[in-house]
UniProtKB/TrEMBL annotation:
Gene3D superfamilies per UniProt: Tetratricopeptide repeat domain
PROSITE patterns in the cross-refs: TPR
Keyword Repressor attributed: no
Protein name per Swiss-Prot or TrEMBL: Tetratricopeptide repeat protein
Top-rank taxon: Bacteria
TPR repeats mapped onto the chain: 45-78
UniProt entry tagged with the keyword Plastid: no
Amino acid sequence: MEPGREEHLMFAKHFERAQGWLLLENHAAAERALRLIPSAFRGRSEVQQFRAQLYLAAGRWARAVPLLRKLVKADPSEAQYWVSLAFAVRRADSIAAAEKILREARERFPQEAVIWFNLACYAAQQDRLPEAHNWLREAVRREAAYRELAKTDTDLAPFWKAVADGVIAAPWGD
């Protein structure tokens, strides 16, 4: 049976509240608001996306992974689902497992700089510095803003140390 006007209003009210609580970084209150959404609306894609975002924000990686896998399966054309899934898998499982996801994502979305950037981070964390160099150059070539982010991202610290030590060349002429 199609939800009535009252259920639609309840959905809108509690979904908006959940979003507000997440903005305030009150993860428990956001989760409580989601539980108040009428059951007919809980399976909607925007609710599932929000729940995944909430789990990521709360650092509940193992809870986020299956939900993000469902989102990727339901809409494999959404690059952000792949990036978020890799992010959660890295923390719930391993960098190697996350890297596998991002390598597939890179094939699907070759122009998405965030994917190349994260691959650079993963390579740096695994001491594959020449590979990190190449991934980083490609990320910056696709989106120049990653040049500044690269300087402060802690995942790239091993790479920058190797650059400072003269072990590997800088990815651009700074």
